[in-house]
Amino acid sequence: MKLGYKELSGHIEENPSPVYLFSGQENFLKEELLRKLISKFSLGFNLDVLYGGESSGEDIVSRALTFPFGTSRRLVVVRSAEQLLDVDRERILSYIENPSPDTLLILVAEVKSGSDRFFSKVAEVSVEIDFRTMYENEVVPWLVSRARALGKRLTPKAAYELKELAGRDLRLLANELEKLSIEVGERKEIKLEDVQTLAGGSRVNTTFELVDAIGRKRRNLALRILSSLIQQGKAAPEIIGLLAWQFRRLWRVKIYVEKGMQLHEIAKVLKIPGFHTRGLIAQAGKFSHEKLRESFTALLETDVKTKSGEAPAIALELLIVRLCQG
User: Fold this and answer.
1) What is the CB-side half-sphere exposure of residue 323 using CA atoms within 13 A?
2) Residue spans of beta strands (DSSP E) within the chain
3) C-alpha count within 13 angstroms, C-beta hemisphere, residue 243
4) pLDDT tens, 173-203?
5) Fewer C-beta neighbours within 10 Å, C or N terminus of the chain?
6) All domains of the chain, ordered by start, with CATH?
7) Nearest in space to 244 (alpha carbons), one of 319, 311, 179
8) Cα-only R_g, the chain
9) pLDDT tens for each residue of 241-273
């Protein structure tokens, strides 16, 4: 059986499985849910946290078979389960054919069950919790729900802006949201202005401003913004990726405008609010198709240079100079 992470708590309370597989690459949600489970069961001596590649299958199974002390259930967590050796995997497979009803055995792995024979077999006889990377259109509702749990109302515009700051990095988003909830104090609502003011170093704002400076051929301003990004600790691949991401959006917007699509239609296709779409339309008008093609070529060549040993800061500065020409 496969469940979403939101369904796990209810499932454990109502009909717990002796074996769970936490699969996928969204580690923030995995860790958060594990902490809640440990806190919920107050396991004390009935908790074992082991690691694949370090603990043997025999040790893992031995702990899973140990009778709980002073409570009804033990919790055995095996982190980095993808690193289990073949002999240990076989021992665990043998165990899960007849697992202890007094133990929750949780195997935590970044792989998907279908991509590995061992985890596919585990998934067949256990409950798999799919911690896949959250889709972009799921992030805003997640933020709104998380703000509600903090006792705050996050407006849709504020939620979208916050998503733009950190993309789909849930750990960063959660930290920023917690800071915002503290900063607004007793006020229940977190507004767009709060996000823009308090969550500095904006991913989309600095990127938008950088591309805007490039579009207006303001080379010195673009270089200052680049310097700010570097001082914030942004690495060359990340800066190049952010620029490529923004230029791809501009190209799509430009094509949609040329097809005669209206602002609300473009916003719907791109799944972004109208106020952001308006800014993208204005910015796209500063670039010809030829200039956009040249920009992608320059980004690709700079990416190759930085990965081939050229000094990242110099390569990025030359990229900005090149993008501001013509």
Assistant:
1) 36
2) 2-4, 19-23, 47-51, 74-79, 103-108, 127-130, 153-154, 189-190
3) 30
4) 888 899 899 988 999 999 988 887 765 544 5
5) C
6) 2-130 (3.40.50.300), 136-198 (1.10.8.60), 203-323 (1.20.272.10)
7) 319
8) 25
9) 888 888 898 999 999 999 999 998 998 888 777
